[in-house]
Amino acid sequence: MEIVFIRHGQTDLNKSGRIQGAAIDAELNEAGRRTAKAAAAHFDASDFDAVFVSPMKRAVETAEIFTKGQKKLQRDRRLLELDYGDWDGQLLADMIKKYPDAIDPWGKADQHYIKYAKNGESIAHLEERCASFFDEVLSKYPDGKVLVVAHGTLIREMAAHLVAGGKMDAFQTMANCGLAKFSCRKGINRLVYYNRVLA
């Protein structure tokens, strides 16, 4: 199976540096739409056997732009972004100052953030969601091509699940409308590319 992930286009929260998890159903901003359309002009969705998308507005609109109406979008709640609980909507810069021990060396919330956001989702639970989704898709399309449109942290964890033993810290957050591709054969998963930007 080949599986390609696309991160959604920019939203106003992305632009302002705020944490945007599953609790905030933001739409793409104009820059996000322009970038998605420019990237989609260099992307052919016609040969994918299935397209899965997070049900959040920013992901669905990005998927619609990239697929150009060629494919049915299958919404799957397992592809929701990490739920950051009380951290959702907060300025990342503020969280870095308040909780430096919950931020990785690249300035992103790490697995320890949940010490301070008690109602947030654990990275372990995100890993369970990713594993459940991947196992089901692989069983349905073992020799197929699958497209997934989702979110930055979700895609980091999916990449970690596939090729890094679940260690999300091994991957940066992809750019808005960035792409990652994996090839999965006989129980071996390979990273083909990560954070490829088409426009």
UniProtKB/TrEMBL annotation:
InterPro entries: His_Pase_superF_clade-1, His_PPase_superfam, PGM_Phosphatase
A GO CC term assigned to this protein in UniProt: cytoplasm
Pfam families: His_Phos_1
Active site as annotated: H8 (tele-phosphohistidine intermediate), E81 (proton donor/acceptor)
Protein residues bound to substrate: R7, H8, G9, Q10, T11, D12, L13, N14, R58, E81, L82, D83, Y84
SMART domains: PGAM (SM00855)
GO MF assignments: phosphatase activity
Site (Transition state stabilizer): H151
SUPFAM superfamilies linked to this entry: Phosphoglycerate mutase-like
Name of the protein in its database record: Histidine phosphatase family protein
